[in-house]
Amino acid sequence: MSTPENQVPEMPSSTKLISTLAVVAMISGLLVVLVYEFTKPIIAENQRLATERAIFKVLPKAVSRLTFVVENDKLTPADDKTVGELVYAGYDKNDQLVGIALNAAAQGYQDTVKLLYGYQANSGCITGFDVLKSTETPGFGTKITTDPDFLANFKCLDAKVNPEQSGLIHAIKTVRHGTKQHAWEIDAISGSTITSNAIGRMLNKSGQALHPIITKNLSLLETAKIQSKNK
Amino acid sequence: MAKSDLKIDIRTSPYIRKAPSVAQIMRNVVYALLPLAAYSVYQFGISALALLLVTTLSCMATEHFFCWMSDKKSTILDASAAVSGLLLAMTLPPGFPLWMGAVAGFTAIAMGKTLFGGLGFNVFNPALVGRAFVQAAFPVSITTWTPALAVDRFVEFIPSTLALPFMKPAATADWTAQVAIDGFSGATPLALMKFQGIMTDSYDLFIGNVTGSAGETSSLLILVCGLYLVYKKMLDWRIPAAVIFGTVISAELFYFLDPNKYPSPTFMVFSGGLMFAAVFMASDMVASPVTPLGIFVFGVLVGFLTVIIRLFGGLTEAVMYAILFGNAATPIIETYTQPRIYGARKKAKEKS
Amino acid sequence: MTQATKKETPLTLDVFTAGIWKENPVFVMMLGLCPVLAVTNSVLNSLAMGIASIFVLVCSNALVSALRNFIPKQVRITTYIIIIATFVTLVDYIIQAVSLDLYNKLGAFIQLIVVNCLILGRAEAYASKNSFTKSVVSALGMGLGFTLALVMLGGVRELLGAGQLLGYQVFSTQFEPWVVMILPPGGFIVLGSWLLLINYIQQRKTGQIIAADATAHCTVKP
Predict the structure, then answer these.
(1) Of chain B's two ends, which shows fewer C-beta atoms within 10 Å, N or C?
(2) Rounded to an integer, what distance in angstroms lies between the CA atom of residue B262 and that of residue C43?
(3) Partner-chain contact B137 C172, CB within 8 Å
(4) pLDDT truncated to tens, each residue of chain B (352 aa)?
């Protein structure tokens, strides 16, 4: 080191200070860029796999998928990086539409809960979900993926679009455990009411906004895969 | 805190009267708790009895173990561990698995008492520390309530009681449906109030004809036992009174704002563990203030927090957290409520 | 400092083992407790956090030590932080590439390695005064000690909180999980219990030495 500790250190010139910092910053910049370039394709691939795993989980019959983005009332083909409300359409091996996967999010007990859910446009059913992000209390909020009574809600949760195509016929809502009467109600988990409510809220919000758009553009979704192959 | 090695004892007259020793006080608290224990056994049967025994033994064993580990004379004979164990058992649901009860007892003494240096140094009420731990660790079991006065309660355990150590307790739903006399829902009056908006009759609450933790159901009996201790001068009546006062005032405020939405003060006072906690928990000699004004502040704080947590919190049983919080605030309360020394003039308004 | 640079103490095994036990960053020095409490709810998270910390610690200490004669005293902290931040960014990318699941679980705590006092502390207190080899060896020891502590916490918390170790069911499926253990309070409780146990053992040890050493003296400590 240039200055011994027991003496009063003399101030080096600012040129020296700046140049030292510049050299160190350059080394670190170089390192970051190198690793970034190297890991970028791997990270992108990981993200694609994660998205696909979630999509194929909520649409078990699907073997391939196409991504669309919502623009006003239209759906336009997009890739996963597009910013906006993304809609994933799943297709079976004969390129027939088997369902649509949609994102939904709402405030849970601790933080936002994000999930991907499957929607059958023809029957108007929500048929399952996969949690993308959740920091809910283990043993309570995490029961949404394990509680058999709660999962039974998603055999066919009614999310039919009303005739005017402006929203859902019946708003989806969460009701207290054991009082579910209609197909559009979600039977809450007793002890995890807040998380159950969050799921009801997010599905309702997403359903009111997106399901009419999907209904309007259903023919596009149904034929998109075949057309993309013919091209 | 007085130094324990101080030998000289200067007192004013009368000289004959002897201050009760710790062991004497604790013994009397045990006597006062016995009727409550008996009533809980009468209500919930041998499960409650087993739970009382397990937590008490676990507390005493823990105390003994830590004394042995730190090469001190064992302090189990002053009965303070037994009091903690009894108090703890009475705040737990009657069907609480015994092994969890043992864990609660261990935590109560280990974390709530010996860690701070034993009796006289604990910052929190040990029994409540134990309960807070199991509340966080086993949230399902501690909110599983079983009906009182089941027919076979003296010959048959509640199924969840005998869970093997570290194993899940058996589900009680079927058993409850079997033994329940009429439409028992497995919810305490507080839970009914919070989640279903049903008010339980105040008379039932007062007598103890409701579901709840092993020892907290009958407000009447708790008051009688408390009066015994007050008569013996082993309980400062001002603490329970202040807690109840704080609860009534706070509940009244909300009831006044919207009687349809918020429960009445009577309900608040007699439901849940409030009465039990006010008489036996808040009055913990070590962890509560001793200055007259401090007692009042402490009680009102506890009562107010109880009402706030009950009405707006996620948990139904609030008084436990309220008292723990009050315990934590005790040193600061005492600092600001020191009484004026007799003869000393009041100083000109001090800053801070 | 001048003495240290002129006359290096030789590289001994002690330089390596100090970090693991005698100067364990968590149990003895109580450094870097934020990740210790936050991510140790399972062994896997603990291990990943530990390995990431070892990487950052070793690389940054190596670089700091190599550059120690060029860095003016006035800007040394800035420089150390730049160096540490660089390696943290690298770890961040690498973990994302290895496993997104893991990355999501560790969350912000990878980025927060930047402000972990352990790493800056070692750079300032050790790497800036010692040779390259010694710095690397010491950093490796410290990192391993840190990882060891994380895994000790994570092991207890996962075992009690989920009945598993590294995701394998240890107890039968009937095991009742202690929910509190995987929540933040569990971190405090388990860390406290480990500290209690370790200090108790060490006190016993030193107590015995004192007793054997000087029988004439009466130890007052109860």
Answers:
(1) C
(2) 46
(3) no
(4) 445 565 666 666 555 556 677 788 888 888 888 888 888 888 888 888 899 999 999 999 999 888 888 777 777 777 888 889 999 988 888 888 889 999 999 999 988 888 888 777 888 889 999 998 988 888 778 877 777 777 777 777 777 777 777 777 777 666 666 665 554 555 677 766 666 566 666 667 776 666 777 777 778 888 888 888 888 888 888 888 999 999 999 988 888 888 877 888 888 888 777 888 888 888 877 788 888 888 899 999 999 998 888 888 767 678 888 999 999 999 898 888 887 777 766 555 554 4
**Taking CB atoms and an 8 Å limit, are C97 and A46 in contact across chains?**
yes
Q: And the tokens for C96?
A: 């994302």
Which of B168, B315, B321 should be substituted to probe chain C, the one whose Cβ sees the most C Cβ atoms within 10 Å? Answer: B168
- Residue C126 tokens, joined: 């050790």
Across the B/C interface, how many CB contacts are shorter than 8 Å? 34
A74-78: strand order across its sheet: A74-78, A64-71, A86-91, A97-107, A112-120, A125-133, A157-158
Residue-range definition of the domain harbouring residue C80: 13-157
Q: Which token pair is B138? A: 């086993």
Its ipTM equals: 0.75
| Structural domain count, chain C | 1
Residue C176 within a domain: no
Tell me if C8 is assigned to some domain. Answer: no
The alpha-carbon gap from A111 to the nearest alpha carbon of chain B, in Å, equals: 16
CB contact under 8 A, B195 and A139: no
| Numbered residues of chain C with Cβ closer than 8 Å to any chain A Cβ | 1-2, 5, 63, 67-75, 78-79, 82-83, 85-87, 89-90, 93-94, 96-97, 99-101, 104, 161-162, 177, 179, 182-183
- Chain C's closest residue to B136, CA to CA, is C180
The token pair that represents B216 in the structure block = 């907290």
Q: C21 in a domain, yes or no?
A: yes
Strand bridging mode A157-158 / A173-175: unpaired
C-alpha–C-alpha distance, residues B153 and B49, integer Å: 11
Contacts of B159 in chain C (CB under 8 A): none
Strand partners, A117: A102, A129
| C-beta pairs of A30-35 under 8 Å, 24+ apart in sequence | A31/C86, A31/C87, A31/C90, A32/C86, A32/C89, A32/C90, A35/C89, A35/C90, A35/C93, A35/C94
Q: Would you call A198 an interface residue with chain B, using a CB distance cutoff of 8 Å?
A: no
